[in-house]
Amino acid sequence: MLSSILFAVAHNNSRPSLNGALFDIKDNRIIIVGADTSMLALRRGFDGIVANKATSSELNFIVPGNSLSELLKLIGDEDEQAEIELTRKHIIISIDNIIFFSRLIESEFLDYRRVVKTEPKITIVIDAKSFAESIERAAILTEDKQKTPVKLILNFKKQESTTEKEKNAGILQITFKSSLGEACDECSIEMYGENLQIGFNHRYLLDSLKAAREEKIMLKFESPTKPLIMLPYNEDNKDLDIQNYMDIENSKFLYVVMPVRLSN
User: Block means of pLDDT (10 residues each) for the chain, length 264 residues?
Assistant: First the structure.
């Protein structure tokens, strides 16, 4: 869960709470959220949360991102039980023979539920690996010394179909232009809604795709100026209204990426 959200935690942000990850624990559910001004990452877990009788069933606290990065280095690959203890200003995490101690960030985290409120008009179902590979190929002309983000133009187009099976078939065109030249790539998609052209920082998209660790994902769009919402997709979704389906309260992950403005 930590490795799936830490890439989104801000560094040296003027808003202290964004320099850490929010832990939102209620009953047998834990949500960890990382965010900055350009993206948000949320991971949700439903199993293995046990509170002692003296502990409130609802807890919210923010742990610095730097502390969590160090904790990740100490955690092995084995499944071990972790015990979390809180004081008013600190957190103590015990795992096997490790006792990890960190201060908490005493600040108000952003209302992440408000951030993900959207009315999706376009839904894309796409193979996550193919999408990531297309982005990497389109951004191949990035200069090594270039510190500015690569602006990718995503153009989602429906294909003309003659059968019911292909009625939602579409093509994603990815375009990148730089002083070195222009690169384009394509991959197949399922598309629900109208055609769309939108731009993104390629690093934010790749980080979210790698953290999702899913074979297929859903991409939700409202307009070229509104954020992208990335959700898991599975075969059970086929019987649902895919275009309007958006279960943000129960999905195991959710990623939000802000678009970049496209020049005319």
Answer: 94 91 88 94 83 70 95 82 90 91 94 81 92 88 55 76 74 82 87 88 91 92 92 72 75 92 70
Q: End-to-end alpha-carbon separation of the chain, Å?
A: 40
Q: For residue 205, how many other CB atoms are within 10 A of its CB?
A: 24
- In the chain the domains, ranked by start, together with CATH numbers, are 6-114 (3.10.150.10), 117-257 (3.10.150.10)
Candidates 45, 27, 62, 61; CA nearest to 253 is: 45
Helices (H), the chain: 65-74, 112-115, 128-138, 202-212
Radius of gyration of the chain (CA): 20
Distance CA 206, CA 224 (A): 19
d(CA 199, CA 228): 10
Beta carbons within 8 Å of 211's beta carbon, 6+ residues apart: 3, 4, 5, 7, 41, 253, 255
In the chain, the largest separation of any two C-alpha atoms, in whole Å, equals 64
* Alpha-carbon gap, residue 31 to 24, rounded angstroms: 5
Q: Which pTM value belongs to this model?
A: 0.88
Q: Which of 232, 227, 261, 251 is nearest to 122 (CA)?
A: 227
